[in-house]
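G., the chain you wanted modeled:
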Amino acid sequence: MRLFSKPFLTTALLLAGLLGSFTAPLHAQSGSLSDSGVLLDGIVAVVDDGVVLQSELEDRVALVTEQLRAQGTRMPPAELLRDQILESLVVQQVQMQRAERLGIRISDEQLNLALERVAARNQIPFANLPATLASEGIDYTAFREQLRREMTIEALRQRDVTARIQVSESEIERWLEQNEANIGNQLDYDVSQILIALPANPNQEQLSSARARADEVYARLQAGDDFAELAVAESAGQQALSGGRLGWRRGSRLPQQFAAAIQSLSAGEVSAPIQSSSGFHIFRVNETRGGDERVVQMQTRARHILLTTNEVVDDETVRSRLEEFRARIEAGEAFADIAKLESEDPGSAVRGGDLGWNPPGTFVPQFDEALAQLEPGEVSEPFRSPFGWHIILLEDRQERDTTDEVKRRQAIEAIRASKQEQETELWLRSMRDEAWVEIRGG
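Predicted structure as tokens:
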């Protein structure tokens, strides 16, 4: 397991500078009236052991509609937009249920830290955040819970997808060779995507149907239809409701099977459909720019022990075990010996928890923050990250000449990033296909 960081504020509500763009209340209710005139909520979908409520759907429709208008995106037909949003809520419910089964929880402390970052990005005092949201018609309590869901889902994805992406030595060597030879890998691309999804193990009829639909969407784009509008209406990608925009990607971090096609496009151009195991992808390059290389000055070398919770083992039990390990280490027992026997991180446990030399920003924020507070030879208190509970031993911190190491790390991160999008799509599609879902309308 690696602890590479990834932006976790995935909802458009929380992107820096966009707070003022959303005025749809997050607490509006909709449904039918009882005989006494009391408003009742309705159920629009049953998802395994949970439900999607009418009020959730209507709130999200209002929110996305406001977002699309603020972006200047032409609105798709109302029924298509509603179906897309309902599907996104179904997938969210599937992920939240899995997170609950795995014991993944976001504490109030973690949530408050994230809210502080939201306030900072929008350049308002944290204490003023509830009032600012209220002035925009957004209920603070609902906003907190939406952010908690986003963070929970990101922690689940880190556990199920990011941590399991493997990078081979041959992939690293091939990337280093190609990166030196390909100038396109040094550029940044602002990319949008429309994904016509395929089920797992599609039959010929499903494959032909998806290909025909992708060809139809591509023809409409060639005829001048708006990409963002078609993405909202037709795409099964995670970013569909944001007009399919994936954002800025370094050329070297594009998925390898798509990189050549994307790098061949000029700004404003659209690719023909490209088939992958998750479906047919159509890309649009919105803009390109030259990339700047990163300079690394200070690095740390550390070891860690990871323990995870589940339906049987709760947070308090795990924390107590780590406190016991910490006491044993302070009494003279070797950190590496305990890590080999007890750590649940398969990537580092065999090396006694050794994570090697790493620059700041390598790990998820909680891990980096705990690491920054330590002096060499010091062991941290137990703390929680999206991967579980940890203790860290900081072995050393120093400036290092790491030109070759930086290139190698860039290769690893780029290969991981290139795999992330498709692996996540496949993971979501697999969970969605396995879930029992009944759409009730409403």
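DSSP finds 14 helices and 13 strands in the chain.

Shout if anything looks off.
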